[in-house]
Amino acid sequence: xxxxxxxxxxxxxxxxxxxxxxxxxxxxxxxxxxxxxxxxxxxxxxxxxxxxxxxxxxxxxxxxxxxxxxxxxxxxxxxxxxxxxxxxxxxxxxxxxxxxxxxxxxxxxxxxxxxxxxxxxxxxxxxxxxxxxxxxxxxxxxxxxxxxxxxxxxxxxxxxxxxxxxxxxxxxxxxxxxxxxxxxxxxxxxxxxxxxxxxxxxxxxxxxxxxxxxxxxxxxxxxxxxxxxxxxxxxxxxxxxxxxxxxxxxxxxxxxxxxxxxxxxxxxxxxxxxxxxxxxxxxxxxxxxxxxxxxxxxxxxxxxxxxxxxxxxxxxxxxxxxxxxxxxxxxxxxxxxxxxxxxxxxxxx
Length: 349
Ligand SMILES: NC(=O)c1ccc[n+]([C@@H]2O[C@H](COP(=O)([O-])OP(=O)(O)OC[C@H]3O[C@@H](n4cnc5c(N)ncnc54)[C@H](OP(=O)(O)O)[C@@H]3O)[C@@H](O)[C@H]2O)c1
Prior knowledge:
Blueprint: E1 4-9, H1 14-23, E2 29-35, H2 45-48, H3 59-62, E3 66-67, E4 77-80, H4 84-96, E5 100-103, H5 119-122, H6 129-136, E6 140-143, H7 147-163, E7 165-173, H8 186-189, H9 201-212, E8 215-217, E9 220-222, E10 227-231, E11 241-249, H10 255-263, H11 268-272, E12 282-285, H12 293-296, E13 305-312, E14 318-324, H13 328-344
Parallel strand pairs: 1-2, 1-4, 2-3, 4-5, 5-6, 7-10, 12-13
Antiparallel strand pairs: 7-11, 8-9, 11-14, 13-14
NADP nicotinamide-adenine-dinucleotide phosphate binds at residues 10-16, 36-37, 39-40, 69, 81-84, 86-87, 104-106, 147, 177-178, 180-181, 326-327, 330-331.
C-alpha cells in the first residue's frame, strides 16, 4: 500500500527534526515536502538544517528543497512545528485551502472548534471537526497540547475518571530542548535553575488540561471544573520534562488505588493498535528514586508517560512525580499519533 504524502512545516526546528526522525520508517505517512522560513527556503534540507539529533537527516528527506509556507503543497496532511510567531496565520490559511493541519503550536489550541487532542484521553473531541470544517470549507486544524501539559493531563485523566480531580498544583522541571535551538544560553543555565519560562507557559499549563479533561457538548467545549496552579522551571536536562504534582480528589483514594487506575489506563490508540501508540500509555514505577529523565524518557519510544512516588499528602490528597519526553510524546510524537487517529477514523481529507 502506498503511504500518504505529508509535508512538515517548521522542518528545520527542534520539533521539525523529531517529525522527520519519527516519520522516517512510518507505515502510513511519507514526508515528501519540507517548509521553513525565508532563511531556509530554496536550500536543500541537509544544508538548511543544523541537525541536532543522533545520526543524519533521513536519506529521503536530506535532498528535498525547503520551501516557504506560502508554497502550494500537494500533500493534504501537513504537520506543523512552526514558531508560534507565524503558526497562527499560516495554519489558518492552509486549513482554509483544504489541508488537514496537525499542529504543535499554541496559537489555535484554545479555539472553540479546534480539538486539543490526546487520543487516549479525549478522542471524542474530534466531534468539533464538523463545525470547524463548515467554517473553513473543508480543511481543519487539530492541535496537541503544550509539552508539559501532555504529561500532566495524561497523569490526571485516569485519576479524574476514577476519583474526580478538584485541584492540582504542579511544579515543573523542564528540559532545554523545549526552548528550541539554540534556546537558553549555556551561561544562563549551567549550574543553575531558572524559575521562569516565557510565552505564557504557566497559563498554558493551568488552562489546557481543563479543556482536554472537559467534554464537547451541544457544539462547544465545556471545561473540566478543576483548579490548576503551575510553577515552571528550566533545568539543564537535554530532553524530558519532570513534574511534581499534588492532587486534591472529590473521592479520596489511596496511593494503591491511584496506581491501579494509572497503570490500567488505555484508550482508542491501544484498541485500534495505532502505529505510534504505546502499549501502556502510563508506566507506574515502584522505585523510590524514579522517574528520572535520562533513565525513563525513552520508554515505549518516548510515547509513554512515567509516573512514580505516588504517596499521601497532608495538604492535598496525593503527591506524585510524572515525566514526559517533551519533543516526542510532548510534541512531534503526539501530533503523529493524532494524525494516525484521524486516518483510522477516516477523517483525513
Ligand atoms: N520544543 C518542544 O519541546 C516543543 C514542544 C511542544 C510544542 N512546541 C512548539 O512547536 C513549535 C516549534 O518549536 P521548536 O522548539 O521546534 O522551535 P525552533 O527550533 O525554533 O523551530 C522553529 C521552526 O519554525 C520556522 N520558522 C521560524 N520563523 C518562521 C517564519 N517566519 N516562516 C516560516 N517558518 C518559520 C523555523 O525555520 P528556520 O529554521 O528557517 O528559521 C523552524 O523550522 C513552537 O510553536 C513551540 O512552541 C515545542
